[in-house]
Structure formats: C-alpha cells, structure tokens
C-alpha cells in the first residue's frame, strides 16, 4: 500500500525544472478559413477572439497572418472562396483543444487545421502560392 507506482513517481525532467505544474509549450501552426462574405472588421474580430483564447489558456501567439481571399479546391458549405488566416502558436495540448473547440462552434469558420511544427520554423509562415491560370486545354498560360 505504501509503495510508489510509476504513475505516482515524479518525472525527473519536471523535478529539475523546479515546478512540476509548468506545461510544456510546443510550437503549432493553425490555419483556418472564414467565410468570404465577412468584412475586414469581422475577420479581425474573429482573429482577436482566437488570440484571446490562446492567451487565456496559457499559450503565446508568435505570428498571425491574413493570406486574404482565395479560391477553395472544392466547395465547403456552399462556398467557393474563403479568407485564409495562418497563426503560429506556442502552447500545450489544452490550448489546441480549446481553439479547435471554438473553431467547431463558430458559424463563420468553414475549415481549419492545426499541425505541430519544428521549433526552427516557428514564426516563419510559408509564402502563399500564386494562383496559375490554365488554358482550355489544361496547359499553363504564358505571361
């Protein structure tokens, strides 16, 4: 009854850091697409709400970028275009669970994806790809 099990034992790495309650902040990239009918002020309000949720749950926003209105690869909720927002976040799993819960609840966010990234790429969002025009034969048009 008095023996310690592996669940009761303290993790040596956490014991060395001084506080066993500190969550480990991992780097994530989250991309979400909002409805194209929203105004710039409404998009800014949604981004500010997500930033607030991240900060309330103990995360840190490293970078946030609005990629603008782009054509979707396929129709999502009867929308052909969407406004892409990219954020780089440092946070725990609880931060990601909370923002994804809010993504699902929001009627303005039509698609989202969050991935864990390497610490070296944190804050370095990939440039958006240029949309290439196709001719009627499926070839690229020359400019």
What do these coordinates show?
With 143 residues, this protein is an alpha+beta fold. The protein has a domain at 23-116: 2-Layer Sandwich (Alpha-Beta Plaits). Helix content is 25%, strand content 33%. It has helices spanning 12-17, 40-56, 93-105; strands at 26-34, 60-76, 79-91, 109-116. It has a 4-stranded antiparallel β-sheet, covered by helices on one side. Residues 1-20 have low confidence and may be disordered.
Mean pLDDT: 80
Strand order of the largest sheet: 2-3-1-4
Oligomer: single chain
Residues in helices, as a percent range: 25-40%
Rg:
20 Å
List SSEs in N-to-C order: HEHEEHE
What percentage of the residues does DSSP assign to strands (E)? 25-35%
Outline type: globular
Helix/strand structural class: alpha+beta
CATH architecture of the domain at 23-116: 2-Layer Sandwich
Report the CATH superfamily of the domain at 23-116. Ribosomal protein S6/Translation elongation factor EF1B
How far apart are the first and last residues' alpha carbons, in Å? 78 Å
Total count of helical runs of at least 4 residues: 3
How many strand elements?
Answer: 4
The biggest beta sheet reads:
4 strands, antiparallel
User: Class of the domain at 23-116 in CATH?
Assistant: Alpha Beta
């Amino acid at each position: 009854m008095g023996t310690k099990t592996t669940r009761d034992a303290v993790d040596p790495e956490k014991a060395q850091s001084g506080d066993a309650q500190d969550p480990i902040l991992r780097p994530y990239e989250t991309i979400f697409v909002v409805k194209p009918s929203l105004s710039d002020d409404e998009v800014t309000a949604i981004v500010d709400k997500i930033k607030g949720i991240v900060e309330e749950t103990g995360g840190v926003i490293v970078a946030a970028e609005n990629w603008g209105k782009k054509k979707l690869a396929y129709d999502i909720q009867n929308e052909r275009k969407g406004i892409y927002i990219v954020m780089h976040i440092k946070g725990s799993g609880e931060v990601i669970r909370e923002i994804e819960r809010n993504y699902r609840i929001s009627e303005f966010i039509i698609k989202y994806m969050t991935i864990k990234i390497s610490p070296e790429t944190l804050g370095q969002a990939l440039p958006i790809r240029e949309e290439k025009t196709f001719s009627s034969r499926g070839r690229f048009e020359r400019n």
